[in-house]
Amino acid sequence: MKEDLRxxxxxxxxWAYRRMLSISWIDKVTNxxxxxxxxxxWELLQTIKQRKVGYLGHIIRHDxxxxxxxxxxxxxxGKRRVGRRKKSWLRNIRxxxxxxxxxxxxxxxxxxxEYAKLTANLR
Length: 123
Hints:
Blueprint: H1 3-21, H2 31-38, H3 44-61, H4 65-72, H5 89-97, H6 102-109, H7 112-120
């Protein structure tokens, strides 16, 4: 997930909270005040992260290696564009779980309970 997409998700979440509270765009209300009024935390981005990591566990437990190669590892036939590589699914998940290698990430995915603990402790 790129930085601009993260900001757009957070902006949408704030827009939704402001709509629920009927706060006009010309009212000077900070985002922190809005979050306090709805008595919520920033949770949309956290939910996206948990679902993305949970989907990886589902794919790994499914035992279809070609699907893992295609979706998660980005192994697609053909040439890639010039320039910096885009962040892959796996890179995002490794950053969020703070696990260095893919092998260390795939090992707990075989056990649902252990993987659920990993999913609950995302940063």
